[in-house]
Design a protein that fits this description.
heterodimer; A: 404 residues; alpha+beta; 2 domains; two-stranded antiparallel ribbon; elongated; B: 226 residues; alpha/beta; six-stranded mixed sheet; four-stranded antiparallel sheet; 6 helices; 10 strands; 28% strand; globular
Chain lengths: 404, 226
């Protein structure tokens, strides 16, 4: 039963949609699919962009120097979160301190915990020098305001603490003073500590008879040297000088490491943007077509409304409302589906495409959900423009006769 | 005066030729008039009714409904006039298939009014008179041709219009129902509504007070019917 006042318009629109079940279902599937893909595609693209930005921010250094042949090991730690360890003499750092053109220099010591009873979790352990470090401490300070004391550790965002406030490495427990925010890099799967603590971990590992540390001395060896160039200094010249000073090492430029990954991500997001735009265009065209075909089928219905005294504006409102109802509910349905399936799908895509930087920041997801719902909802009244035009056009009585 | 037509003509262009469907018609319709127009198919009867309903505009002449020249009215004004002052029973099936009988009948009262111009008792009375009481919640696709026509008549009559335009209202109706409808028209014309009925059935015109004939777009009083 139709109820009086403005509700009538809403009820008429609903009844019209329900009356043409198959058309409405087709329309709803299409709009739900649009809303689903738009949100998923946008979040995926956005998360890749975030990955690039995070990577650049977190890398922190202009150059990273590692033992020769260990570029891939370093990339595995930074980009994929795969534990690795390699060493060269601390002299490399000492020699580089004399080199002109370097504004900041620090070194790191790597160790990997193992998958055994002595360790809670197999992770990358990174020892930093709190006095000279410029690469890790700025983002440690975002969650922990003090200098790391002996025995303290900081966990990366993806380390599963499971409510624990301590982690065991080589049969010794270390208090966790903070857990870092998500960076979207491999460093999320690392544990940070001072070199002093690292020395203790190293000695414990050695005492357990781990072969890979047999020939290493934590006071004389380091795993990498990170350095920053003085502003405006010639990079090529500096690289030459580094080689001259320290000989056979691998110099990794931040841009070189990030560059290949960033290019891959930027290409991917470029393709995705094009796909999203194409998806929009195709959907708008199909919706426009569906509303137009429907307007043609319904011309007799429109004529009856006009004969009974409906204004063109009333018809336009009714048709807009039909589009609005379909598109709003389907936009919501699409975003719910996309949100529910977002984490597994994006993780799967991230793994399949070897893009470890696919992050889904909650705030941005909420923002895109709102944008998706608004845009997809607006699409309804916009694509029913022809139907509205058709409804108010022509001589009503002729339409009545043609419509029979 | 409820309606006044002064030298109204309607022409159409078909290719290079112009066809005059309604030719220089003048007519005055007063409160309570019951006018019938008979004529062959294509004589211009329906076009004349459509012009009176404001669905099409005349090529020449003036049509005034309730004192207003329909040519100068905005879409809102003409729609309001059609909704509140004119009842139109079309020759074609004119019910909305997604609404029940009762919803179809009530629909016009929602466009411009917050309250219906009739009571629930009025509605029941019309439904009872037209034999529609058991069909209120039925959808048009389940109705026969005669039932569809009676619902359309109920919808037009219930709004208590100043002017009721009926285009072949007894098509698809049996003799009994035809008499019922014409009797109903007589009653409502007595109560003040002016009725213009187009028909091709001569026996129907006996119920009307004034009888016109239309031929090749020209409206005239044929003495043999009056």
């Amino acid at each position: 039963m139709l109820k009086r006042n403005n509700k009538v318009l809403r009820q008429l629109a609903k009844k019209n949609l329900l009356h043409r079940k198959y058309r409405s279902i087709g329309l709803m599937l299409l709009v739900t699919l649009l809303s689903f893909f738009i949100l998923l595609g946008t979040v995926f693209t956005q998360s890749m962009q975030n990955g690039i930005t995070n990577m650049k921010d977190r890398f922190g250094a202009d150059f990273m120097i590692v033992p020769k042949n260990y570029k891939q090991g370093m990339e595995a730690i930074l980009l994929k979160g795969e534990p690795s360890c390699f060493y060269f003499s601390k002299n490399v750092e000492t020699n580089l301190e004399k080199v002109e053109g370097i504004s900041e220099i620090t070194s790191q010591f790597f160790l990997t915990s193992i998958s055994a009873e002595c360790c809670d979790t197999p992770v990358q352990l990174i020892g930093i020098d709190p006095e000279t470090d410029f690469a890790v401490q700025p983002w440690i300070r975002q969650v922990y305001d003090e200098t790391l004391k002996k025995g303290e550790i900081i966990a990366g965002s993806k380390i599963d603490l499971d409510g624990k406030d301590r982690l065991k490495f080589f049969d010794r427990e270390y208090p966790i003073v903070a857990q870092l925010d998500d960076t979207g890099t491999g460093l999320d799967e690392a544990v940070f500590t001072s070199k002093e603590t690292m020395e203790q971990m190293f000695n414990d590992a050695k005492a357990k008879g781990l072969r890979f540390v047999e020939d290493v001395n934590p006071t004389e060896d380091i795993s990498s040297v990170l350095l920053r160039i003085e502003p405006g200094y010639d990079r090529t010249k500096l690289k030459k000088e580094i080689r001259k000073q320290v000989g056979a090492v691998r110099i990794i430029e931040a841009d070189e490491m990030i560059g290949s990954m960033a290019n891959k991500l930027e290409n991917m997001s470029g393709v995705l943007y094009i796909l999203i735009v194409l998806f929009w265009i195709i959907h708008i065209a199909v919706l426009f077509l569906m509303f137009s075909v429907s307007a043609n089928e319904r011309k007799k219905e429109f004529a009856i409304y006009r004969v009974l005294g409906s204004t063109k504006r009333y018809l336009a409102r009714m048709l807009s409302l039909e589009g609005l109802i379909v598109c709003f509910f389907c936009a919501v349905a699409g975003t719910v589906l996309a949100t529910v399936s977002m984490f597994p799908i994006l993780s799967y895509l991230g793994n399949e495409l070897e893009l470890p930087y696919v992050q889904i920041p909650a705030f941005q997801v909420i923002k895109w959900i709102v944008v998706d719902i608004i845009f997809v909802t607006i699409l309804g009244p916009c694509t029913s423009v022809y139907a509205i035009f058709r409804a108010g056009r022509g001589e009503t009585y002729l339409t009545m006769r043609q419509g029979d | 005066m409820i309606a006044q037509l002064d030298n109204v003509s309607k022409s159409y262009q078909r290719g290079k030729r112009e066809f005059t469907v309604v030719n220089d018609v003048s007519l005055k319709i007063e409160k309570g008039d019951f006018i019938s127009i008979i004529g062959k198919s294509g004589s211009g009867k329906t076009t004349l009714l459509n012009m009176m309903a404001g669905l099409i505009l005349p090529t020449e002449g003036v049509i005034k409904i309730d004192g207003k020249d329909i040519k100068g009215l905005s879409d809102k004004e003409i729609s309001s006039l059609r909704n509140e002052k004119i009842g139109y029973i079309m020759q074609e099936q004119s019910l909305l298939s997604n609404l029940t009988v009762q919803e179809n009948v009530r629909l016009p009262s929602y466009f411009f009014r917050n309250t219906a111009s009739y009571s629930v008792e009025d509605e029941k009375e019309i439904f009872r008179k037209l034999g529609l009481m058991s069909l209120t919640n039925v959808y048009p696709e389940e109705l026969s041709g005669g039932e569809l026509k009676r619902v359309a008549i109920a919808r037009a009559v219930l709004q208590k219009p100043l002017l009721l335009l009926a285009d072949e209202p007894t098509n698809n109706l049996d003799k009994e129902n035809t008499e019922l409808i014409l009797q109903l028209f007589s009653e409502i014309s007595e109560s003040g509504t002016a009725i213009v009925m187009v028909t091709h059935e001569l026996e129907n015109i006996t119920f009307t007070k004034t009888r016109y004939e239309m031929d090749e777009g020209i409206l005239f009083k044929n003495e043999k019917y009056n």
